[in-house]
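Q: Predict the assembly, please.
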Amino acid sequence: MGNDGIRPSGLDRRRFLTLAGGGALASAALRGAPASKPAPEIPVARRRMIQMNGYATDAETPLDALTTYLTPNDLFFVRHHWNPIYPDARHWALEVDGLVERPLRLTLGELKKLPRASATCILQCAGNGRANHRPRVPGVQWRYGAVGNARWSGVRVRDLLERAGVKAGARHLQTAGSDKPPSNTPAFNRSVELEKILSDGVVAYEMNGSPLSPLHGAPARLVVPGWTGNHWMKWLTKLTVSAEPQKGFYMDTAYRYPKTPGEPGVAFKPDEMNPVTELFVKSNITEFPATVAAGSGALLRGFAYSGAPDVSRVEITDDGGDTWRPAELSAQHDPYAWRLWSFRYTPKGPGRVTLSARATDSRGSVQPKDAVWNQSGYLFNGWHSVDVEVTA
Amino acid sequence: MSRRVRAVSALVVAIAFLFSGPALEAAKKKKKSSKPAAANFDTKLPVLGTKLTEFPPGPGKRLADEACLACHSADMVWQQRLNEKQWTAEVNKMAGWGAPVPEKDRAGLVEYLVANFGPENDKFQPVVTRPVGK
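A: Predicted assembly structure:
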C-alpha cells in the first residue's frame, strides 16, 4: 500500500508525503538511530523520588537527578489520574477502528512483529511547574520534575494506520487507555490531530530499551513528541480514527490554555482558551553551588527543551535580565529531546546573586520571565532562578 | 478509615510493593548462597505509595475522610493553598463526580478545607521515596 492509503483528505499530496514519510524531521525522529550511550551514573544519594500523592500515584524527579541525557526509567516521573487497572499483557490487544477500511486488533506479540521505530524525546506533564503560578491554582503541585527524556520504541502510528487504511474525511485520532475513572468522574480520553500523529507518533512498548513498566503505561502507550503528557495515553487500548476531536471534560474543559494572556487570578472562560498541545520553551537549572568565592568559577548545569524540535540557545543572567551570557549546549540531541547545558559563572564580588536561565528554541520563541497565569496551572515556563552566595 | 478506603490503600501498597526494591531484595535473599548486591538507592527510604498522610484533626476530618479518600490520598489536599471560592468549586466538582458528601455537609467540608489548606498553607512536605519500578 502506498502513502495515499492513509492520506487524510484536506491535505495536499505534497504536504502529506512530507508528514508521512519524506519529511526530514519525521525521518530524523523515528528512523532507527544508533543506540545512545549508557547514561552516566547518578550518585546513589540523588537516586530518589518526590511523592506528591500516595494514591492515585504521582511522583516527580528531583532536579539534581535530571542530569543525564536519558532519564533512568526508575527515576522517571509518575502521573496517574486515578488508581489504574493495569492490563494483563497476555490478554491485552490494541484496537484500531473508526474511519478505517480494515479495523485492526493487535496483540503485543503481533505489535512487536511490525517494523520497529524509536523516538528519543522528552515527556512533560502539562501541569509541570503548577506550584510556581501565582495566585495559586488547584491540582498536583508539581514544581520542576514532572519531566524526563527517554528513548521510546515501538511502532509508528502511521505504519499502523497505513495497515488499517484511513478513509476520507479523517482529521483526528481519538485514544483510550484501560484506566477507568471512579463513580461519575469523566473518562480520561484525548485526541490528537491526525496531521501531528502521522508525522512522528509512536505506539511505544519499550522505554530506554526495557519493556515499559506498569507505572509508565505498559504494555504500550502513545508517544507524541513535543506535545504535553496528557496526549501520551498510558495503558493504551484503542485508537479511533475520526472526523471530529474527542468530546468530554478532558478535551472541552480541562487541558486548555488562554488564547491571549489575561490578568493573573482572573479565570478564563472555555472559549477564551485553546487545547493544550505543544510544550513551551523552557530551561531549568539542575546543579549549582550554594556558595562560591569571588573571582573563582562556579559551574551551573541544566536542561532546556521546547515544543519546537530543538533549543538553539540557553543564556544566564546575574542582573535580572539586563545582560545575558550564553551557556554551552551539549551536542547530544534528537528532535524534541532536551539539550543539556553548562555554564561557568565567575562572580564579580561578594554578596548574594540570583542567577536565572532562559532558553530560545529553534523557532525563535524565547522563554519569558513570567509564565502566563491560567486557572489550571498548565505549561509554566517562567525563568528558573537560583541564589548563590558569593564569599570574599 | 472506611473499609473501602482501607481496601484501596492496601491495593496500592501491594501493587507498589510488587514493583519495589524490597520485593526484589526479598527475592534475592532467598538465594542464601549469593551475596546480596548493594542497593543503588537509600534503602531507608519508603516505597512510593506506602507512606500516606492523614487529614489533620478537626470538626471536618470525618467529612474529608469519607469524601476524598476513596479516590486519592490526603496528600493531594495537603498540597493545596486555595481560598474559599476555589475550595467551594473543588468540592462541588468532586461531589458531581461522585464524592460521597451530602449537600448539607458541603459548607462544613469547605470550612474545614479553607481552615487547614487555605492560601497561607505551607504545611505540605512531600515524601521522599525510593526510585520506582523498572
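Residues 1-36 of chain A have pLDDT under 50 and may be disordered. Residues 3-254 of chain A form a domain with the Sulfite Oxidase; Chain A, domain 2 fold (CATH 3.90.420.10).
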